[in-house]
Amino acid sequence: MSAKPGEQSGLDGLARNERLWQRQAVLRALPLLALLTGCALAPPDVAQIPPPLSYPPAARERMLRLATAEWRDWGCVTVGLPGPAFTPCQPAGAATHESATQNFPRILAYWRSVPQSAEAIPANRALYARALRGEGGANLWAEPFWSAAFISWVIGAAGVDAPEFAPDASHSRYLDHLDALAEAHPALAPFLPRDPALYAPQAGDLVCRDRSRRALTSWAERNAERGQFRPMHCDIVITAAPGVVEAVGGNVSDTVALARWATDVEGRLLPDPRPFLVIMENRLGRTPPWNQDTRS
Predict the structure, then answer these.
(1) Is 290 a member of any domain?
(2) Is 294 inside any structural domain?
């Protein structure tokens, strides 16, 4: 059945936005790709991965508090589905973007949590110094992408150590680590990969998308390229409510924002605009001896 004129216009708009999103993602990922070039990691020998430590429920609760607090401090920006957020937020001040000088220490803290900080910070320190002198600085923290650094900071600040969550400037790299842990020790892994078409995300989960032009169609395809850089983006689920999931992420519209995504009646995410790649189920506080979870 052909689309009506108004419907076709909306479809064309979505297609244009998707193409623009892809181009912007590729262009802004170039500095991060350069940063990681030559640093591809060999796929880990799953048989040699030691069992991870188990964390109490307080680690996940702290993770959620930290992500929500950052969203509030950045001004409670919301993107995605229209309407008021289910997650309450009283902004600490007016919404700001990454280039605002008051946000320099915030993003600096995110970058300090990942091993690539030395490659990202010096240039932005120079931009910050120029801004303080009134000489510009409009591109402060514009590159490289800092969304993975944000996730790494939140989880690390929540008290999860590197053997259980390896902080990195690339989402694909820390996801590879989580995936290998899950393969080696499924009963103890702090996160388990779930198919977004089958699994309804819950608070604390990581919802991840492939940002590349030739996106993977399933998470299983990632096994063949573990250790290689791939542009991705993940957000931390804060609230799962009827018909909507709300998640906080960094470097979303150049700020820390809450994304609101539509779900089906079972709570599974609908494409937005393309399908989500993987959901990492958060099992902090749900592995022995802390496990009190009834979910599979």
Answers:
(1) no
(2) no
Adjacency order of strands within the sheet including 255-262: 77-80, 255-262, 244-252, 232-241, 206-210, 278-282, 191-194
Output the six-digit token pair for 73.
């401090």
Q: Where are the alpha helices (DSSP H) in the chain?
A: 5-36, 57-73, 104-112, 117-132, 147-157, 171-184
Range of the domain at 51: 5-282
pLDDT digits (tens, 9 = 90+) for 46-77: 878 999 999 999 999 999 999 999 999 999 99
Cα–Cα distances in angstroms (integers) from residue 158 to residues 16, 33, 161, 206, 233, in the given order: 39, 28, 9, 15, 20
Q: For the chain, what is the domain count? A: 1
- Domain membership of residue 295 (yes or no) is no
Judged against a pLDDT cut of 70, whether residue 6 lies above it is answered with: no
Report helix, strand or coil for 114.
coil
Q: What is the mean pLDDT of residues 277-290?
A: 97
